[in-house]
Amino acid sequence: MKSDLVEKASEIISDPLVLINMVSKRVRQLNSGRSPLIPTRPSMGAADIALTEIIEGKIKLADPAPAAEA
After folding, report:
1. Alpha-carbon gap, residue 70 to 49, rounded angstroms
2. Distance (Å, rounded) from C-alpha 1 to C-alpha 43?
3. Closest CA to 11 of 56, 48, 44, 41
4. 58, 23 Cβ separation under 8 angstroms
5. What is the DSSP string of 3-44?
6. Cβ-count burial of 17 within 10 angstroms (0-12 exposed, 13-18 middle, 19+ buried)?
7. Phi/psi of residue 20, each to 5°?
8. Is the dihedral of CA 29, 31, 33, 36 positive or negative?
9. pLDDT grade, residue 70 (50/70/90)?
10. pLDDT tens for residues 3-53?
């Protein structure tokens, strides 16, 4: 995982825990056979692909659903 990608992605997702969770979930998806959403190079690992997808806006944090009123 390249530190420059982590820095750029952290500008988009400011909460480090959320960023870690997004990257780890996407890495699991990629490792289970999902296709990358960006052009890749052989030197890129799954975490690099996930971070680049976040940087390029291919993966975004979902807005939380509004709470139901009781």
Report:
1. 42
2. 11
3. 56
4. no
5. HHHHHHHHHHS--HHHHHHHHHHHHHHHHTTPPPSS---TT-
6. exposed
7. -60, -45
8. positive
9. low
10. 999 999 999 999 999 999 999 999 999 999 999 999 999 999 999 999 999
Please tell me the chain's helix, strand, coil percentages from 3-state DSSP, rounded to the nearest 5.
50, 0, 50
How far is CA 31 from each of CA 25, 28, 50, 66, rounded to the nearest angstrom? 10, 5, 11, 32
Residue with tokens 């692909």: 49
Q: Return the amino acid letter for 38.
A: I
Quote the tokens at residue 66. 């509004």
Nearest to 47 by CA among 10, 2, 14: 2
Q: Tell me, rounded to whole angstroms, the distance of Cα 60 from its chain centroid.
A: 8
pLDDT at 62: 81
